[in-house]
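Bench log, entry 3. Co-assembly request; chain sequences pasted below exactly as received.
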Amino acid sequence: MSNSSTSSRSALSQQWQEFWFYYSTNKTAVAGLIFLFAVVFMAIFADIISPHEPAEQYRQFAKLPPAWMDGGQMQFFLGTDYAGRDMWSRIIHGSRLSLIAGSIVVILSLSIGVLLGLISGYIGGWLEALIMRVMDTIMAVPGLLLALVLVAVLGPGLLNAMIAIAITYTPSFVRLTRASTLAEMNRDYVVASKMTGASPIRLMFVSILPNCMAPIIVQGTLSFSTAILDTAALGFLGMGAQAPTPEWGTLIAENRDLILNAPWTVTFPGIAILLAVLAINLVGDGLRDALDPKLKRS
Amino acid sequence: MLRFLINRLMLLVPVFFGVTLVSFGFIRVLPGDPVEVLAGERGVSAEKRVEILTNLGLDKPVWQQYLNYLNDVLHGDLGVSVKTNTPVLEEFFELFPATAELAICAIIFALIIGIPAGIIAALKRGTKIDQGIMGICLTGYSMPIFWWGLLLIILFSNTLNLTPVSGRLSFLFDIDPVTGFMLIDTLLSDEKGSFLNALHHLVLPMVVLGTIPLAVIARQTRSAMLEVLSEDYVRTARAKGLSTFRIVTIHALRNALITIVTVIGLQVATLLAGAILTETIFGWPGIGKWIIFSIFARDYYAVQGGLLLIAATIMIVNLIVDLLYGFINPRILHQKSK
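Structure output for the full assembly:
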């Protein structure tokens, strides 16, 4: 018993080593991963790292430029907004919201999408037809528009924005999982498992699902980055996180009138979004290359 | 060919009904009372309320309301906008050319830069040039376009004073709408300088909207070209001593086109979603700005109709893309119709 568990553990660590071997050959993907860890670190320890409270208004220091520009002060490194709030602290706290929003969107859409995809691929019939037609309908409307309409129904707010975006991302996971499930269904190992009397639940989740995971993981990473972009876009349009919340898109929206006389209040939150999304996309590209067996050979 | 077309159309029918269900359901589940929205904030008497409900057909069972709605939709009646009192369909088609012009110019911009960039990256695979192009593309792909738009406004409109901040045309010009496409209309009119003015207004929104499609097209072109360049017929062409230019344009690009056309089809939804943000930033009087305005104004009929019409637009464009495949690659046509 203990023997088999150690051998499976070593098989797992060997798999991991192989994965890391392929992943680490891609230097930009490693750089993206390091930057992503830095952002996660920033988000977790936001209260300790940020020099000021994100909501604290230093009225006498309103619209202060960044430290390296004329009139800038070191204590407000990236400058302050119209109310004298420290941009750097607000951006740090914003990273928390963006990462949480991205994670929740991916967790929601991935778990629902994979479940529906497995069911429609494994069971088939009218259930499959129904699920796929519903997904086609969701995909017929541009994601951001559907999210906007859903938020109009649910009411503006970060949580509702996350739910709305998650709904628009579900179809891609359903389609991906269904396609992989259909491909795996007729493989020998699934048939063998069926012959030994495995239950449909066991077949779906223990036999088939682990072999469909590679594309799902890649899609999950890519959805994570677009989820951050869409959350910010909804925040920018005033349908996501609401004004005093230091969400990155909301920061840009609330300082939009200042682009003439205090451009840094718009520039830095945008750079934060861009870098975070870029890092995640680099990781996603690296994962795809490392997990895709077709590319491994070349 | 006809059979292929009919097959495709049959696939669209359930999706279209799905979208009508969504847009119908949207109004049912909205917070707020439609009667109050119609009658204004002051409220209405009980009799007036019943009258409005009967007029709108809201007193009937839900399934009957849906059938009525479907009947109206199929007869081209999408209701009347509460805020402007014009039929939604009319409003949509009045604004649609502005969005279409912006989207078409954006996709042309993306193609003109994206395809050559992808080809160069593929030909110089693994070099600094390839890495540079792909790095820029990934940055473009990761771009929050609403911020990108503001950044370009700061740079080109406020600092360099090169382009106007918003709108389609300066108020100095009075152009009769012929096609609704400002670039064509200004060319047709005899007002001097109006075409250049329209072009100036178009440049920044076009670049902003075209950024993500450009990145996607360049990446896809590169990978499609890499695949094609390793094919036997390209090696044969090389062995015959053809120039790289000829190999790329005559032999490789045509076969890589299928992937590129697919990408363009997939980008239509991205373009229309991006138009919402781009038009809001640049005050571009198109569908995107209109639908945002309608959502904020709680103009439910406009949002409902807009949702349906945008979905229909995407379906039609994707259908055209599917048909284009047939022309580019006859093999697809024959496979499908068997």
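Chain B has a mean pLDDT of 82. The CA atoms of residues 139 and 215 of chain B lie 8 Å apart.
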